Amino acid sequence: MIVPSEKHLKGSLHLVNHTLPSTPSRGRAAEQTCLALLQACISLRHLLQTTAFILKSGLQSNPLVLTKFAAASSSLDALEVATSLLFSPHASTHLYDAFLFNTVIRSHAQSDRLGERRLAISYFSAMLRCRLLPNKFTFPFLLKACASLPEPSSVGAQVHACVVKYGYNSDPYVQNTLIHMYSGAPSSLDCARELFDRMPKTSPVTWSAMIGGYIRSGFSDKAVALFREMQGRGIQPDEITVILVLSACADLGALELVRWLGSYVERENIPKALPLCNALLDALAKCGDVDGAVALFEQMHAKSIVSWTSVIDGLALHGRGKEAVRVFEMMKGAGVVPDGVAFISVLTACCHSGMVDEGRHYFDSMKSDLGIEPQIEHYGCMVDLFSRVGMVERALEFVRTMPMEPSPVIWRMLIGACRVHGRLELGERIAKNLLDEDPVHDSTYVVLSNLYALGRQWQKKWETRRAMSERGIRKVPGCSLVELNGEIYEFIAGDESQLQYRGVYEMLEEIGRKIKLAGYVPRKTEVLLDIDEEDKEDALHWHSEKLAVAFVLLKTPPGTHFKKIFIIVADEINVGDGRSADDPRSLAK
Question: Which regions does the record annotate with the repeat PPR (predicted)?
């Protein structure tokens, strides 16, 4: 923060005495000189000199000078300089007006610092204490400041009451910022949607505010549904809306909609600014069209580190680790310095392709070559890499040498590696220690239960499940999402409650009969349940990914050629670890 000391002001006054006339002009001439100085301010030094000139010329009582002074201080990120003059104990409150307070509130609301944004609300309270009436320009920035708070709706609701009290609840700009504020937290999303639905007239800005709220709260499916409604009403999305919807598509794997949005951008001649290209690039990569993402990347004239990282990430997540590493090296060759996020992407590429030596090299080079201190995400990538290739002891040693406390996620990675590679005692020891530290997370109970099941220790498995039940902890069911004809469908293993499941189980039965005739034998050892052999086969059969694939086959005409069926799997431990028919990806063959 910049706080002008008495020494600074005295030094500035000395400079003013030597650079301006010894007897400064008064009245209109002094005002014009001061306004010119404020317009020319390009540094804190200039601002402090002008502050001294204001004091020497007696302009601290000029409302126009004070307002311009506040604006100049804001542009130089020196708000403390402004407030020390405007709201000093000797300031005359009769000079204050709404325009001055709006300038100060706007300046604080636009700050990158949370403390400054809180001050915007404090100055609004001061404005009311001075018996000044807020106007329609007061509330948008004030609500923006509220939206940045940890719990925006608590303070925001009080500001909303003032909006209604002073009659600005019908102003479209105020309504848009109210929606943006309420949609900033999942707990107040319903309030945002209620305001949205009551608006008689909406603009792309309004729709973007609501769509963005859904995405920030993790409801990408609702964001896409609202976008469909926007299309149905004939409202043309702007660049911001397109970027937001692309982000939602990336979460859902909605490749058809991503491609439609790409075509829409071309058709409507929307300028391909870098943020839009990056959003499209990221969505294509995450939705499985890595080749399309690479093609777009190669066409882009301007590339940022976000562009490079998106391509590396897309290649990494789809098992094309060597290509990802090659692009990472191309990025460095192009003079783009990797940041921490880029290193996460290249380490992920090494993980998914089992490139241990390359992973070690990049991890070590972060600090040695670029001075980037590895964070817990980078350590997690290395633990994942060692775990995937069976180097469980090396992974455990790596965890023990971490400079920070390992997260529960890292410990669960190790437990999973112990299960896959048969280190049951080590996995049990780690899981029990983790339960002592974090006894409420369902995933730890699940992986420990699976460890016991793999060792056929059924009694311990049921004791773990009972402890989970007694503590009121429930496993979040795994689900799979698939896009078909522009719609997103969700599948949960064993769920028959929705209309989309009609005929799916019959399709799976038919597929099962055909692949058995082709020589398929179910890998029942991967079913971690104490049930008979027939029930184990059923457990393999009703996997949510298999339901999703069967649904696609059921709903498409015979003879349809599938280049790729892309499925998003969430919170589910996959059945089987090979490309057998127990791997749902093999069903479409």
Answer: 203-237, 273-303, 304-338, 339-369
Per-residue pLDDT band for 545 (boundaries 50, 70, 90) equals confident
The tens digit of pLDDT for each residue in 313-325 reads 999 989 899 999 9
Contact (Cβ atoms closer than 8 angstroms) between residue 245 and residue 215: no
* 63-81 residue pLDDT tens: 788 778 878 877 777 767 7
Phi, psi of 96 (to 5 degrees): -70, 145
Helices in 253-355 by DSSP H: which ranges? Answer: 255-267, 274-286, 290-299, 305-317, 321-333, 340-353
Query: Alpha-carbon distance 324 to 97, whole Å?
Result: 58
CA 11 to chain centre: 47
Alpha carbons 313 and 154: distance in angstroms, whole number? 38
Give the ranges where 318-355 is alpha helix by DSSP (H).
321-333, 340-353
Place of tokens 């075509």: 263
In 471-503, alpha helices (H): none
* Cα(530)–Cα(528) distance, integer angstroms: 7
Give the separation between CA 71 and CA 59, rounded to whole angstroms: 16
Report domain extents, the chain.
216-302, 322-406, 416-475, 479-586
535 vs 522: CA distance, rounded Å: 12
Point out which residues pair with 490 in neighbouring strands: 481
CA 320 to chain centre: 25
Range from 3-7, 218-222, 491-495 that averages highest in pLDDT: 218-222
Check residue 490 and report its DSSP letter. E
Give the residue from 467, 392, 404 showing the smallest Cα distance to 436: 467
Instruction: Identify the sign of the CA torsion 359, 288, 570, 225.
Output: positive
Tell me the per-residue pLDDT of 77-101, one tens digit each, with 9 for 90 and over. 776 776 777 676 666 667 678 888 8
C-alpha torsion angle, residues 536, 542, 545, 547 (rounded to 10): 160
- Which positions ≥6 away from 531 have C-beta within 8 Å? 539
Contact (CB, 8 A) for 223 and 209: no
Q: Give the rounded percent of residues in the chain with a pLDDT score beyond 70.
A: 81
Are residues 312 and 346 in contact, defined by beta-carbon separation less than 8 angstroms? Answer: yes
**Rounded CA Rg of the chain:** 30
Q: Which residues contact residue 43 at a Cβ distance below 8 angstroms, ignoring those fewer than 6 apart?
A: 76
Q: How far is CA 426 from CA 61, 148, 441, 448, in A?
A: 75, 45, 20, 11
545 vs 588: CA distance, rounded Å: 11
Q: Which residue has the tokens 């059945």?
A: 575
